[in-house]
User: Fold these one by one.
Assistant:
Number 1:
Amino acid sequence: MPDTAKWLEQMRSAVGAKGFTTTVEDMVPWLTDWRGRYTGAAAAMVSPASTEETAAIVRIANENAVSIVPQGGNSGMVGGATPDTSGQSIILSLRRMNQIRAIRSDDQLVVCDAGVILQNLHEALAADGQRFPLTLGGKGSATVGGLVSTNAGGTQVLRHGTMRSLVAGIEAVLPDGSIYEGLSALKKDNRGYDLKQLFIGGEGTLGIVTAATLKTVPALVDRCVAWVAVGSTDAAYQLFRFLNGRVPQSLEGFEIIPQTCLESVLRHISGTRPPLAGGHPWHVLVEIVRDQPDTPDPKSIMEHLLADALERSLIEDATLAASEQQAEDFWKIRESIAEAERANGPALQHDISVPVHGMARFIDEASPVIEAKFPGTKVAAFGHMGDGNVHFHVKAPEGVEAQQWMRESAKQITPLVHDLVIAAGGSISAEHGIGQNKRAELERLSSGARLSMLRAIKMAIDPGNIMNPGKLVPLASGQSGS
């Protein structure tokens, strides 16, 4: 048989008929990224059911110099799980590896396969009196492996941190097909580099995460969610400082939302309604929780703090969710912004971070710069203000042809946004990763030291560049895959 047919048959034998397809119709949903910006081709989609099957596939790929594109829920935002157009690579889907291996409540740990869907993990832990303190709008499709590989953030980073803080151990298949067994959640381990951190945020470029040991926390006793109106971004920041200074151990959410984004959600997302009467320039979604029954009631804490904030003229108005359903309704508004903005028209979306103390100033100063230089555009900045991370959307002028505007304007607008971010001491990727979407910008804006370290790590672990080539790491001229 020709070489391609030979290794394809070897892979089919390794995973069985259920885990293998070369039929284009079967692969089509997985060949385009969630945003619809990138579409590729693949020789096959392989779906192993175990770590051993994954290792077998990687060994075959390594022996035949076949590129592998790992994929979880295909809900990434930067094209990191989409193959190129050559049709020579394979998609390696982890979705069949969906078992929760162990819930260790006494240690507040859970061990699960990479293909476990985040929402399913939440439900399994809730039944055991625990929770995994990371959530995001795509929890119904996002997988543990994808969350690890992109160092996902979400709306609870303020208290619990990103995936880097929540991963206690990793199991991964390396580019040669060997298995890194690092699931033990040791409190102390001084055997050199923290190898698991190479895979967290590595976007599948160094190996394939097959399982993870994650930290859990006790299930919530109760929570209080408030919708707060403020007059400016600085007022929102001052409110954050005020609340975080008084209840840092129970403040779990602090999200800033402009009036324009609220209006967009109300217009496009069914079942939503304005939490407050009248219009206000900015809104803040605040969540205070308790997970121990002998601690103060979060509702009484919130009432007291917001009354004090009103007296200090930090806020214009506020309302507390009267029920768990209303709390979910408030959060639905926040989590639906991206969907509503898409329905509202084309926009260039930037996931950026700056130091927390400089976020209000960045929004106020960068937004008019962009709108003045590109007439007709409108900036919508929203998100995790307490983390110094907002989603900085630049919406197209009315009446433009969407795809043409996106292609042409991205070449001018995005570099300017990123230049302003770097000037403010920030990062061009806060929680979505680099993928293929930001690789050129990472190279343009990174120091020589950062680039040389990224490249050295990549080429040392994956010298054949078979692991998700073309993503994250901008290889130098002469290096494989550049």
Note: The domain at 222-337 is CATH 3.30.70.2190 (Alpha-Beta Plaits).
Number 2:
Amino acid sequence: MAGFGDLIGMVLQGGLAAKSAPGRLENALNRSGLGLSEGMLGQILGGLAGGSQSSQSAGMLGGLMDMAKDMLAGGSQGASQNPLASGGLGALAGALFGGGSRSGGALKGAAIGIIASLAMQAFKNMNRKPQGSSMGFMENDIPLGARPPQNPHEEQELENTSAIILKAMINAAKADGHIDQQEMEKLLGKLKESGADPEMQQFVIQEMQKPLDLDELVQDIPNEAVAAQAYLAALFTIEVDTEAERQFLNELASRTGLDQGVVSQLHQMVGLA
């Protein structure tokens, strides 16, 4: 059964992402110190390439790991068999956000890992830990979401965080109006195609039909680390080209206590500075 982490990828690939989302992700991976050759994601991939983990144990980054390893290795075999290997970061970003690659389905579980890793990098760039969070902060730390949970407590924490991120994305999409019936039907079609079970489909339907509720969203966010992840997910969901969308982001940051320096880092990562 798919969890909320997989569901995030499904809804992004199903049309909830902003049109500029692939470019924003490519920009973040290139400029934030989280590129495929260095930084946190590089460390994760380096561990996999070194054989310390199997691709099965790669956790929520799933198919992204194998594809990125091919790209890092630069092998002709990877390039010939992997439609993303020859396309670089742009192809990876496009597939993650529904860009049409046949490998896109394999990436549906990667979104939560990317979001968690970028959020941690924003705090590292500010040389500070998120308030109220147990998020690790050593140079080689891999955040939950970019690695598999190690115990039932982490499993539940990951599900809770993923559900919050999903709600943040859906609320962001409502910021300057509502999600119309055509958009909803398109998204539900993608969820069915991707294998989301009826319970998950019903969750998404209910969240999309609700009016925007920032109060409930803010109450659900337990600490600054999750606030950063929710904020970043919103940046991948909306274009941020209307006053209503900017107001939504401002309120989300201020009401969750998200440091403005971290907000600036997230904007710089995705090219919105």
Note: The first helix runs from residue 4 to 16.
Number 3:
Amino acid sequence: MTATPPLILASTSTYRRALLQRLGLPFAVQSPDVDETPLPDESPADRALRLAAAKTRAVAARHPNAIVIGSDQVASLGSGAAARILRKPGTAEVCQTHLQALSGQTARFDTAVCVAWPDGWAEHTDITRVVFRPLTREDISRYIEREPAFDCAGGFKCEGLGVSLMQRIESQDPTALIGLPLIWLAGALRAASLSLP
């Protein structure tokens, strides 16, 4: 009987780690240490997939007999070359700016995930659209004070109080917006011979 390859999450994100724990599989975590500098004229979807693949390959190169998961998410407002990338704000001031821009608008979240295993590769990009209600400065200030989501793309947490900022979420997988599309990932891990219900 062949031993099951070890499972490694190529990410230091606490959100992705918590999501992967939902599948009930033992796994290790490793930092992929990849350059995340945007490329010129790169679409948000292309950037998310490129970085997810780079993270996966970086860790898989160190552990060729493992099953490695890499993921990346890019949040944007607008479309095409004019799309504005909404990064993790880092500070209350930048968070305020992001949320003001999102007021009454629809943001797009491209969440890419790649899985590498000794004799296979799979990749997927989930698109989530978040429609925000019109937000006053007071709404935004109250939100930031109660839930400072400075380490989240766009500056809000849909799994927390941030849901009160929205009119609706359009997605095929609610976990994708948090950072790791588990519906697709479960299928990919089954293809890599891991046992899941």
Note: The longest strand covers residues 120-132.
Number 4:
Amino acid sequence: MTPEGEHKLVETIIIKTQGFVSGNFSENDEAPIQKFRDFLNLYKGIDKAQLRANMKYFLEAIMPTCEEYNMNMCVHPDDPPIEVLGLPRIVRTEEDIQWFLDAVPNKHNGLTFCAGSLSAGAYNNVVEMARKFASRTHFVHLRSCHIFPNGDFTEASHLGGRADLIELCRIFEKENPQLPMRVDHGMTFTDEPGGIMDESSHGHNAGYTLLGRMFAMGQVQGILATVDRELGIEYKQPGFFD
């Protein structure tokens, strides 16, 4: 890579991704790489078994509060579902999900079914996983990925990819028509703030552009309207369209 390309990659990984997720980084940090390495050092000696033990401890500890206030905890799968920078992943397969649901069998301990994260793993049958875990799913992220022959993946249209969002909507709408869903990421368009043609888009987080997510929402609304008609459910548009 050229020095410019390497800098852009590091900035994407550390600033745009981790800064967005955790808020631990900003674009004004003078030594983000060292800061990132310091955070990674916190996980030295932590393997999959220890991470699972920590997760079980945390979930068990919060269940009394969840029961008191009737709140659901929704565990999001690892995204992406592969090891990154040497860190183990513990919620990426059907077996992983079954483990944390069985480890803390309380009804308030459930799954955020992120179809995008799960479909990024070629080993996951996303539709069958939806059928299996629908009753323990409290939140749905509708997103889909395409996998290349070498295992790399890219996000696909909400009407494409391997997640089969149409069938997922059938499953979840039948199991629980009130289940909260979101479109998650959307495509980036060229003619909007933050788009790839916008020279002022420094600091923009890919996947969260306005037009891209509205486009995705239109696709998903069409899916849900059709599925609800098939199931005999009255489709209700989101409130901001009323």
Note: The longest helix spans residues 48-69.
